[in-house]
Specification:
65% of the residues lie in helices and 13% in strands. The protein is an alpha/beta fold and 294 residues long. The protein has a single domain, classed as Pyruvate Kinase, Chain: A, domain 1 (3-Layer(aba) Sandwich). It has a 5-stranded mixed beta sheet with strand order 3-2-1-4-5. The relative contact order is 0.19.
């Protein structure tokens, strides 16, 4: 019986060690993707900050008469929900989906027609199985973001809002705080709140370091050009933060799984050694007992 126990433990140790090799490899892949995604996000931030600064200055000096600022009674609402296409990233997907479900349920309770714009297979599967209306989906981004994808998502939302298909567009995603921390967020994308833009611009003008630009062409024409760019950039940065959070969560999860596998191997090895020593001791006692009998 002892020999059978040792063989079973050896088999379990090999199995756990193989799993550990897989999780270690997945951790390295996730770390590489995190580094690449985080580099893109950090590289895009100066452009995003400057674009936001210009838009805020224009908003403070221009009479806002753009469809993207139009505030309408909310009869139909669209939620852009961003999660991953794959699992093995800890509680990342569940945290985002729980926040999204809470917001969607609250919207439906208000009597507002609510639909889902799913980015990520996990989002699509979650809401489809619960019979929510899926307006559109992207299940092939694979945690990678580029300008074409950001523009496509942004254009879809702008078209849906400006054509009157939806009266409000919100986004639920996970912001990247640090490698160990990702925070689900629910925020409004459309309509753009002009009061906040003007307030930010007034605050910037109060700063002596604010640069007063010479605008060519006119401020009104620049505003019409920059506003769609500003919105698409917000969508791009949102996707970038969400995917960076995904890779960070997966790397953390696989790192923890690798450590847990190592601890399990140590415990199983200790148990196997005890079983083996117990079998050796039993055999020695049998031999000594037989010799004494003779």
């Amino acid at each position: 019986m002892a020999g059978a126990g040792v063989k079973l433990l050896n088999k379990r140790i090999r199995s756990v060690r193989n799993t550990q090799q897989i999780t270690k490899a997945m951790k390295m892949v996730a770390a590489s993707k995190l580094n690449r995604s985080q580099s893109k996000m950090l590289a895009a931030r100066p452009y995003s900050q400057k674009l936001t600064e210009l838009m805020q200055q224009l908003a403070g000096k221009t009479d806002i008469a753009d469809p993207l600022f139009e505030v309408r009674p909310i009869k139909r609402r669209l939620f852009l929900v961003i999660a991953s296409d794959k699992g093995l990233c800890g509680s990342y997907n569940m945290n985002v989906l729980k926040a999204a479900r809470k917001s969607v349920d609250a919207s439906l309770a208000e009597g507002v027609e609510t639909e889902i714009y799913a980015v990520g297979k996990k989002v699509f599967d979650f809401f489809r199985k619960r019979d929510f209306t899926i307006w559109d989906k992207h299940v092939d981004f694979a945690g990678e973001i580029n300008s074409e994808q950001g523009t496509a998502v942004g254009n879809n939302m702008v078209r849906a809002f400006t054509e009157g298909e939806f009266d409000e567009v919100r986004v639920v995603y996970s912001t990247f705080v640090s490698t160990m921390t990702q925070k689900p967020v629910d925020m409004a994308l459309l309509p753009i709140a002009p009061d906040q833009a003007v307030a930010d611009a007034d605050e910037a003008e109060a700063d002596d370091r604010t640069v007063d630009y010479i605008w060519e062409p006119s401020q009104e024409e620049m505003f019409k050009i920059l506003l769609p760019l500003y919105l698409r950039n917000r969508v791009f940065m949102t996707l970038s933060e969400a995917f960076t959070s995904e890779h960070a969560a997966r790397m953390t999860s696989m790192s923890a799984a690798t450590e847990n596998a190592g601890e399990l191997i140590e415990n199983l090895t200790l148990q196997r050694n005890r079983e083996r020593q117990s079998a050796i001791t039993a055999e020695l006692l049998d031999i000594v007992g037989g010799a004494n009998a003779l």
